[in-house]
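User: I'll paste a sequence; please echo it back and then give the predicted structure.

Assistant: Echoing your sequence first, then the prediction.
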Amino acid sequence: MLFDLHPKERREELFGREREIEYSVNQLLSKNWILIGGQREMGKTSLMKVVINELRKEHGFKGIYINLRGVRNLNSLLEMMLSEISNTKIELNVRINFMIGSAGVKVKKGAKVVNSLIELLNSIEDNFVIGLDEVQELSQASKYFLGVLGNVFTSNEKVRFIFTGSYIGVTRSLIDPPSLSPLHGRPPVVLNLRRFREEESASFLKRGMEELNLDFNREDQVVKRLDGVVGWLTLFGNLHAVRGMSFEDALNSTVAEGSKIMVDEFKHFLENKGNKALYVKLMEIVKVVSRWSEIKRGIEISLGNIDDKELTLALDSLVNNNFMEKGDKGEYKIVDPLLREIDFGRIWLPT
C-alpha cells in the first residue's frame, strides 16, 4: 500500500523509483558500493530495503539491514551486525576473535572490536549485501570504521555495502576519501534522491487513493502545500484515506506532525553543536534572504560580529545535514516545505 507509513520493502510498493532501483542493483552486482543521499523524507530507507530484497530475490544474495540511529561506536555495530548476520544462517568461518557454541557465535572476551569486525566480514563466503542506514551516526568512530571498510573492500569482494547518510563526518570521508584513507580510490557510487516533480506527486496521490477505492481530485492543493516530498505525501494519504480524516484536518495534521519530526531532527543535529544560537538563527534568516552577504548581515544584527569562516562552516553543516540547499549561484534556501513553517527560535532558547 502506497500510504503505508512503514519503509517499503518490495519493488511493487515503491512508487517512482524504478530507475533508481535498477541503477542500484546493477552497481552492486558490478561490485561497487552505494551511498544513497538526499534530503529527509525522500524514501532513502525504502530504496535501500527494496534493493536488498531485489538482490536476495533475483540474484541469490544474502543480506541484512541495520538502522544506525543512535549507534555511536563500533562495539554496538559489531553486536548488531553479528546478530543480523547470524540470522541469515550463513556459515561463518570465524575462529580467532569468536567462539562458536550451542548459543551461536559470540565475540571472545578481550577481542579487539576492529579485528573482530574485519574477521567477521571477511569470513563471509556468499554474495552478501549489508545496508547501513544513517551511517553518519558512526562519525565519532570514523577512523576505525573506514579502516574496517577499506580492509573488507580489498579482501572480500563477496561483501557489498549500501549506505544512507547526511554528508558529514564518516559519510563525507566515504564520498571523498583523503589520500591516506584506506578507501582512497574506492569511493562508493553516490545516488541522490530528488523530490517528485509536480505531476509525479499528483500521480502518487492518485494511485494511492485508487488502491483504497477512493475518489480524489484535490491533488493540486496537497502538492502546493507539501511539494514533492514523498514522506509528507504518504503521511497525508494515510491520515486522509486510511484513517478517514477530512481533507483539511489531514493536511493540517500532516504539516503539524511533519513539523514535529523535523524539529526532533534539528534538535538531534544541535546536540553536539557549541554555538546552537548561530544554527537556529541561520534557519530563521534563510527563510527571508538567500545570499551569503545578506545572511551575514542578518546574523551580525542578531548575534554580533562573526568570522567569515565560522559562518561558512555553519552554513555548510546545515547544507550537508540536508536542512537547506546551496544553489549553483551560491544562494541558500530551505527546500522542505515543512521546515519553512517551523519557528526555529522556539526550538532552542538560551538560558
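The chain is about 50% helix and 10% strand. The longest strand covers residues 62-67.
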